[in-house]
Every structure is written in structure tokens, then in C-alpha cells.
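Lab meeting, action items carried over

1. Structure of the two-component assembly. Owner: GW. Status: complete.
Input record:
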Amino acid sequence: MEAHVAGDATAFAELFERYAPVLLRAMARQLHTPEEARDLVQQTFLQLHRARNDFRLGAKLRPWLFTIAFNLKREHFRRTARRREALGPLHADQEPSQEPLDPVTHDQVQALKGALAQLPRAHREVIELHWFDGLSFAEVAPVVGASVNAVKVRAHRGYRRLRTILGETESAANRSSGSFK
Amino acid sequence: MKRSDSESRLGLNDPDASLRAEDPGLASLLDSSSEVPRASLDAMHRDLAHSLARESGPRAWLSSRPTWLRGLCVGLAGLVVILWQFFFSLRADFNAYPGSALWLALFSFGTAFVLALTVVLWPVQRPALPEWLAPAALALSLALPIACCFSKVHTGHPASLVGEGENFLRLAANCFAYGLVMAAPALALLYVLDRRSNPRRWSLPMVASIGGLTANSALFIHCSSTRPVHLFFGHASVSIALALAYALVAAVAFSACRQ
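Predicted assembly:
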């Protein structure tokens, strides 16, 4: 980022290469269509470029980017008067970079998605940013506009709720294998 | 209290360690779920490169200035408008007008101006401001000029009776037009300094309120009429008209986004 602020033309492409996949993944989880997710990621990088002179040298870029992306996502929801509460399936135009998950794991992942969708938004955002997007709790804090301790409390309560929901799902399905515990 | 004790016992200092210890299966599932597919980014990169290529010229340069500098520019524009009135267009009854009331009004307008400017220029890379703040700031910046119209200072200080009778409409229209001209520098600056591609909810009426406050401050120093009806239709109406016009533009923009 410091190179981009200094005028290095290639630095922005490197930033895009490094952060666009993780941002796209985060946006795709919460938006209705891949087009919306791509549009918001582009807007995020455009805003990053326009705000480059606000960047404090030595500061971490990832929380900055995620804060921009989350603010734009909230504004997008307000403009379109829609909210995405459930986690959608992976998009068809995305190419897997990993080996496909085995059927049991796939079921578990679907169950986890269902359980995450039932969490309060504040808890879900923290868990997604931390586990799926790789942000530390200290990095999540500015993104969601809370203190690090508050973020940890949300994570802790989210985990507890997830375990309860998954336990209920497991009981309902009366599964003997593929247990989460 | 019981919940807090329980949570601290469970290791709030490191919720992940607590989760891994208590439910390694869920921790491992969360780990594996993070390995979602990666999209092809080439087309997106090309589009972004096109957008960045268009980011040139004076407006792009101005809007990319640091936020504090953009705020300072708008603040200075407002200050220049006010000082202009003091030096070149001072109200005729200035020496007779109660000084404390004048300064109190200007201080109130200035405070609302700073608050509105903070909301409008709040950078997108900072955690969002509380949602109630923008409508509250807008309401304040509209209410202050209206409250000034009916202040007891004016009804108890008939230093000037201009704007009475037949002259009412003409003088109110003059003040209205003068107010719009005084609002123009702040509005123009806010337009060129704006970084957003799409308007946010409240952002356009907030911009209008900044122009309205500048106009009302200037008119307060410039116009010597103390009639509430003139002050309402000639002065406060500038804020109201600008807010309504900008709200209409915002509604059209939001409607286009929804479609």
C-alpha cells in the first residue's frame, strides 16, 4: 500500500492479486448474486485507491479493506432494500482450488452454513471474518466497529450458539456418524 | 453477572483455544469450511483497471486528498463567505443588534455545520457512524435556522422594518437568491471532493444542509430585516429548499439503484 501511495503503478495490481480473492469470497457469502459481489469488490478497490492519502504508513491494510467492503455492503443493502440472512451455495462460476470435500464433510459444511445463518448478525460477522477471511480478533474489531474484547465476547457466544444449533440438528437427524463432537 | 463469570472462566481471552479444547470437531469444521473456491479475477481486474484509468483530472485529484484536508477546504469556504459579509456586506443595524444573540446564532450554525460536515465526509475506511446520527444532524441543521426566525430577539428588536407590506415578496426572493449564491461555494466544493460512486442514504440532504447553514449564516450577518415571516421565507427557506431538492435527487438515484 505504501508503494501505491508513493505512486508505484504495479503496487495496486499486487494488492488486488493478494486481497481480491479473500474479499470476493467474503462478499459472495453474503450477497444474492456473483455480480453483486464482484461489483462490491471493485468498488472496494476503487475506494481504497481514492482514500490512499488517508492511509497511515505502517498501518495494517487488511482491516482497512474489510472495513471499506463491509461499509459498502451495508450501503448496498440499504440502497437495494434487501438483506441476505442465509448463506448461499457456492457460485457456479467459481473454480475450486481445493480437492472436493468428501460427502460426509460436505453435509457437515452445509449444516454449518445453516447454523451460521441462524446466528445474530453481529456474532456471524465476527466468526466469518475470523475463520473464513483469516482476520485476527484485533483486525476484526475495527471492521465491525467494536473493541477487541467485545469481538471476543461475540465470538465466544457465537461458538456456543453454533454448538447448540449443530447439536440440535444432529439430534433431529438422528445421525450416528459424522458427529461434530 | 452469572453469564460474565461463566464466560471469563471459559477463557474469553482466547475464544479459539476454548473452542478447540471444548469442541475440536467444530473447530476443525470451521477450518475446513474456510477452504472455499477461488474465483477467476481476470475480468474484474480489467474492469477495475478501466475505472482506475478514468480516475484522472482535477476532481479525482481533489477527492483523493486526505479527509482532514477536504474538511478544512469546505470549512474555509464557509468561513470566507462569513468574513465576506462582515467586511463587505454587513447588516445595516449591526451596531444596534444584540451582539450576544448574533454570536450565539453563528456559533449554533457553526456547530451544526461541523457536525454535518463530519457526517458527510466520514471516510468509508472507518467504522460506520451510528445510523441515527445523520438524520439527527440533518434535523438540527434544518431546525436551527427555523428557530432563529422566531427568536424573541427579533420580535423584541424592531431595528429594521424592511420587508414589510408590498416589499415582502421582492425582498424575501432577494434574500432567497442571495442565500443560494452564498451556499454555492460549499456545495460546489462538496461535489468535487466527494469520493463515493453512489449516494448514501441521507448524504445528499446532508450536503444540502451544509449549504443551507452557510447561506443562513451569511444572511444573518447581511440582512437587517427582523420580521419572522421574512426570515422564514427569505432565509430558512434556503435550507429547506436545498434539502428538498437534494432529497429528490437522492430518491431518484436510489430508485435507479433498485432497478
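2. GW to write a short summary for the group page. Key points so far: The mean pLDDT of chain B is 84. Chain B touches chain A through 54 residues (CB under 8 Å).
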